[in-house]
Amino acid sequence: MASQITFIGAGNMASAIFGGMIESGYPREAITATSPSDEFLAPLRSRYGIHTQTDNRTAVVNADVVVLAVKPQIMQSVCAELCETIQARKPLIVSVAAGLPAETLERWLGGDLAVIRCMPNTPALVGAGAAGLFANPRVTTDQRELATQLMQAVGLAEWVDDETQLEAVTAIAGSAPAYFFLIFEALEAAGTRLGLPADSARRLALQTAYGAACMAQHSDQSPDQLKRNVMSPGGTTERAIQVLEDAGLRQTFLDATDACAKRAREMADELGKR
Ligand SMILES: NC(=O)C1=CN([C@@H]2O[C@H](COP(=O)(O)OP(=O)(O)OC[C@H]3O[C@@H](n4cnc5c(N)ncnc54)[C@H](O)[C@@H]3O)[C@@H](O)[C@H]2O)C=CC1
Ligand SMILES: O=C(O)[C@@H]1CCC=N1
Predict the structure, then answer these.
(1) What EC number is given for this enzyme (predicted)?
(2) Which of 170, 182, 266, 267 to mutate to test the pocket of ligand 2 (most atoms within 8 A of CB)?
(3) Which residue of 78, 87, 137, 264 sits 20 to 30 Å from the alpha carbon of 217, by its own alpha carbon?
(4) Structural domain containing residue 186
C-alpha cells in the first residue's frame, strides 16, 4: 500500500511536488495537503482529487511522511502546533524549507525524529524537477529509498553527504528556474524589439531553451563544445557571445549564486538559533 503523505502548506512548491507525483501515477487518495484557508484548498481538491485539511494536526495523525512546505519564517510555529501529534506517530519528516537545518527542525518537533531536508524546484510540476536531499542519522535505508522514489517521480534526486551542500543546490537548482525564466523574458523582449510578434518571440525563445537543455543532456559533448558548434568563425553567434562575455555574464552568475547561498546561510543563522 502506498505511504500516506501529508503536505503541510499547499503552495507553489508543495503543489508542484504532489501534482508531479500524481502525474507519475502516485495514488491521489494517499495524499493530503493543508492550508489555513479552505478557499485556497477547494481548487486543489477539484484539480488534483487529493484530501485537504485546514487543521494541520488532524492531517498528520495517520501520515507515514509529513512534508513541511510552509515558508521558513512560520515553520517554528507550525512545528510547535504539530509537535505532540508527530511525537505520537514519529513519521518521516521531509522539509523543503530553504535555509532551515535538519537539527533545528528535529528540535522544534520534539527530537528523536528521522528528518530529510530536501531542496527541490518548481519544474517538479512537469516531472522535470531537480532536487538535493540530505538525511539526518535517524533516517533508515527504507525511508531514504522512499524519499528517493518520491522525488524521482518528479525529476532528478541527488543526495548530499554534507548538509551545507544544500546551499549550493539552492543556488543552482532550487532558485535557478527563476534565472532561466528571467532569460526567457529577456529573449522574448529582444525578439519583439527586433520585429517579431510577442507570441512568436516567446515560442521561439522557449523552444530554443528546451532544445538546448535536451541537447546538452543527451550529448557526449561538453556545453563549451556545444556552444562552439553554434559559433561559426566570423559569424553571428560569435558576436553575441562576445557581448555576453564582455558584459561579465559568467561573473554575474557567480555573484548571483554566491548571494543565493549566502542568503540560505543567513536564513539558517536567523531561524536556527530560535
Ligand atoms: N517556490 C519555490 O520555487 C521553492 C520553495 N521552496 C520552499 O518551499 C516552502 C514553501 O514555499 P512556496 O511554496 O514557494 O510558498 P507558498 O507561499 O506558495 O506556499 C506556502 C503555503 O503555506 C500555506 N500556509 C501558510 N500558513 C500555514 C499554516 N499555518 N499551516 C499550513 N499551511 C500554511 C499557505 O496557504 C501557502 O499555500 C518554503 O519553505 C520555501 O523555502 C523550496 C524550493 C523551491
Ligand atoms: O526563494 C526562496 O527562498 C525559495 C527557496 C528556493 C526557491 N525559492
Answers:
(1) 1.5.1.2
(2) 170
(3) 264
(4) 176-262
